[in-house]
Specification:
The protein has 319 residues and is α/β, with parallel strands linked by helices. Helices cover 43% and strands 14% of the residues. To bacterial alkanal monooxygenase alpha and beta chains.
């Protein structure tokens, strides 16, 4: 589809999950990507805010070394000023792109100490007004947009724990260090940190989900997501492929492990099966929330997946 069609479909999905009663709708940051049309996350969130009613909207996330903390505070402070307390600000260290594009973004170091300092600055800009401050985010100050720390390793867990922030782990594409990162976060969490926004360790984690009326259809549709994983991991990004009957026929033998390891954390199947697997995953890791990510070639089948999951989970539609 065209870029405009892709953005329209993302907006339709936001409207659908808003109606269904999902808690949040987060949008990522990617640059120079033929797969993800999400380079200007704050602009997209503003557009979605205009077309939804009650669901919380968030950056999942802002890759903070790509931006100055002041500019991030101004963008998200403006959103909060226009639309109220509906936004979450997830923060990550990754570039969200290839090295050359990252350099063109005038990217910062991304080192843990520098990253933590930027988070502190951002917190201050969004905090209570300080008339004596020589640099202020206007609009921004006083909006207290909630911060979430994102991570795909133990690095983000360390920062989240030291600053007393809620922590969201990207297990939907980086499952290997999930347990270790959650252990580090919970063990080192500081509720007494000056920056603390939650009283106890608060966690969410990502899961690849695809729900369909039958297991056979779900497995078939999920091959689009598996092909996407192979393309990304092998340096061949492209728009999402249509599903295939047999992955082995289209993916070289040496690349087939990428179709499984990259998305090892998944729940694919009928509504009851997926709901049961999600409940078990959340209980196993003692999670407060789950991030559900679904890729299909046909956008309507993605919306159907979220509808079926909402029904199986017993969600109450949003009034």
């Amino acid at each position: 589809m065209t870029p405009r069609q892709a953005l329209e479909e993302s907006t339709r999905l936001a409207q659908e999950v808003d109606r269904l009663g999902y808690a949040r709708y987060w949008m990522a940051e990617h640059h120079g990507s033929e797969t993800f049309m999400s380079s200007a996350t704050s602009l997209l969130l503003g557009h979605v805010a205009q077309h939804t009613e009650g669901i919380r909207l968030g950056a999942g996330g802002v890759m903070l070394p790509n931006h100055s903390p002041l500019m991030v505070a101004e963008y998200y402070g403006t959103l909060a000023t226009l639309y109220g307390d509906r936004f979450d600000l997830g923060l990550g260290r990754a570039p969200g792109t290839d090295p050359m594009t990252a350099a063109a973004l005038a990217r910062g170091s991304g080192q843990l100490n520098d990253f933590a300092a930027d988070v502190l600055a951002l917190r201050d800009y969004l905090g209570d007004p300080r008339p004596e401050a020589r640099v202020r985010a206007l609009p921004g100050e006083g909006t207290h947009v909630p911060l979430w720390m994102l991570g795909s390793s133990t690095g983000g867990a360390q920062v989240a724990a030291a600053l007393g922030l809620p922590f969201s782990f990207a297990s939907h594409f980086a499952p290997d260090q999930l347990r270790e990162a959650l252990l580090v976060y919970r063990d080192r969490f500081r509720a007494d940190a000056e920056t603390a926004q939650v009283a106890r360790p608060t966690t969410m984690a990502g899961v690849n989900v695809l729900v369909a009326p039958t297991q056979e259809e779900a497995d078939f549709l999920f091959t689009s997501a598996q092909l996407m994983a192979v393309r990304i991991r092998s340096g061949q990004p492209a728009p999402i492929d249509p599903p295939v009957a047999d992955l082995a026929e289209v993916v070289p033998t040496q690349l087939q492990p990428l179709a499984h390891a990259h998305q090892a954390v998944r729940a694919v199947g009928t509504p009851d099966v997926v709901a049961e697997r999600l409940e078990a995953f959340a209980a196993d890791h003692e999670l407060d929330e789950l991030v559900v990510t679904t890729y299909t070639y046909d956008p309507e089948l993605r919306r159907r997946s979220f509808r079926l999951l909402a029904e199986a989970w017993g969600m109450a539609p949003r009034a």
